[in-house]
């Protein structure tokens, strides 16, 4: 994210990055890939790193919610989309969230699902790639240091819990596939295929209610009230 009103920002040089890394993400190679692929590239780009390795669910959430972030120029998430979700929601719980959310965020693909990293790779003009090549491309984007704003979605549940999403939100079957396949993380992205087959075999019925506000029609010259 960049400050409001700026099309693009540029990371300073030298740059100090806090890297939040989940060693269990994807097939469990995130730390090895960071040391072998990412760290040498960042060193060449004059980006120093402090690596924070998560040890449990919500560990990254608590870290960015409570930590003094002023010592870092950017936050880098080396994992799948789930860890970035933790980071974004942790930042939004801070008393100084308006300032905290101006801190540039970077995603480096290291998980089972890397949708945001793949999207950034596409919009940066690179060919569709995966695994090590996608990681190399995203690291190169970080080395260039350009950052821009990113939209967030605010979602409130009936229980009063508020979440912030950067991709989308799901309920029912898709959510069950994601949750039930957690135990197959060692399979990488194939966990979702196995999870889908299992959820289809024991297909559940979902009952819920969706509430929304209709979009207000834009008032044009012909819709203006009579004097």
UniProtKB/TrEMBL annotation:
Q: Which GO terms describe its molecular function?
A: ATP binding; sphingosine kinase activity
Q: Which SMART domains match?
A: DAGKc (SM00046)
What InterPro entries does the record tag this protein with?
ATP-NAD_kinase_N, Diacylglycerol_kinase_cat_dom, Lipid_Phosphate_FormReg, NAD/diacylglycerol_kinase_sf
Q: What is its main location?
A: membrane
Listed EC numbers: 2.7.1.91
Keywords in alphabetical order, please: ATP-binding, Kinase, Membrane, Nucleotide-binding, Transferase
- Indicate what this protein is called per its UniProt record: sphingosine kinase
GO BP of this protein? cellular response to growth factor stimulus; negative regulation of apoptotic process; sphingosine biosynthetic process
> Into which EC class is this enzyme placed?
transferase
Q: Which residues form the DAGKc domain?
A: 12-159
Q: GO CC terms on record?
A: cytoplasm; endomembrane system; membrane
The listed locations are: Endomembrane system
